[in-house]
Amino acid sequence: MTMRPLEGIRILDLTRVFSGPWATQMLGDLGAEVIKVEQPRRGDDLRKLGPPFLKDADGAETKESAYYLSVNRNKKSITVDIASAEGQAIVRDLADRSDVVMENFKVGDLARYGLDHASLSARNPRLIYCSITAFGQTGPNRHRMGYDTLLQAMCGVMSVTGHPDGAPGGGPIKVGFVLSDLIAGSYAATAVVSALFARDARGGTGQHIDISMFDAQVAAMSHQGMHYLVSGEDPQRFGTGAPSVVPSQVFACSDGHIVLVAGNDAQFRKLAALVGLPELGTDPLYATNGARVRNRARLIPQLEAKFVARTKQAWLDDLEANGLVAGPINAVSDVFADPHVAARGLVVAATHASGGTVPLIASPMRLSGTPLDVYAAPPVQGQHTHEILSGLLGMGAAEIAALEDKKIIVD
Length: 411
Known about the structure:
This protein is of the alpha/beta class. Helices cover about 35% and strands about 15% of the residues. The longest helix is centred in the middle third of the chain and has 22 residues, at about 180-200.
């Protein structure tokens, strides 16, 4: 079997809920050994965010929520009470044997237990220590908690998502998945890999990585943020439309909706001819994208009147035949029924410890020389506690039993 890129790297994962587990799952997909530390009895709060919950081989619900399953494959789970001296000692010993520690506690919380960057890096100078918080380690908001909805609101995402004020259904709208967590987690994984390269390929040492969900979401505003910085004007909401490309939006057909993007002037001329309005392609009001953006209110109703006269499949067939970019608006069930999903191998199955199998969404990273072809099911709480304590830390059966008796490692 070809080695995956990060095999030989060990990640001590003190994260929970979403942004941190998303990052460590990416690193686990890349081949790192990820040891997930969970609180005894309680575990990762994400396990309980259901329904739906995974069903076992007999069709009974397990304790594993779909939410938890989405971000915890390719990991090992141990339970350790980090509020106890014995639990803190276990985590410190694991950190001594790890390349990376990742955590998403509130600023300063882990210092109470001697598990902060300063404490652990003093023992292991090569340690990469990554902290993910809502607002970062510095600044006036550093001690505030934050969740995705709050970050989408504060960072401007909701101000540019939804229909314009005054339009039917107008007002700010939240993006329908945990956007801020995903972005912060992706930046965290990239930063960790970069820090490992700096340490191992350039003779560097360990370092502290400060990832703020706020910073990450502001950075990911990208062109919308630059719109403001360049113009001094707040970007507006355009519903399904794009702020700087016209037409790029949903159109109603006689039996449903399609989405269409004419990404340049040549494509728009093709579209104008196809809908029976070839004169629009050379009209100074619409001939260039800049003109179309300025005159969208005059252009879009003319196109809408054409699209609503025919079925969506008829339009999709003609648009594709003319080399134009268009497609259906799929439900999630439609997505996973698409033959392209099967052709790309985007759903894989793994055997779960609770019985039966669990479907997983495959990593989109396709590496020809070091393929990411290992998919271990997300672990049940504490599944690997004995394995890690005896194998990695060399604890004997009596020592482990004593920890269990004191509820230090009870699942």
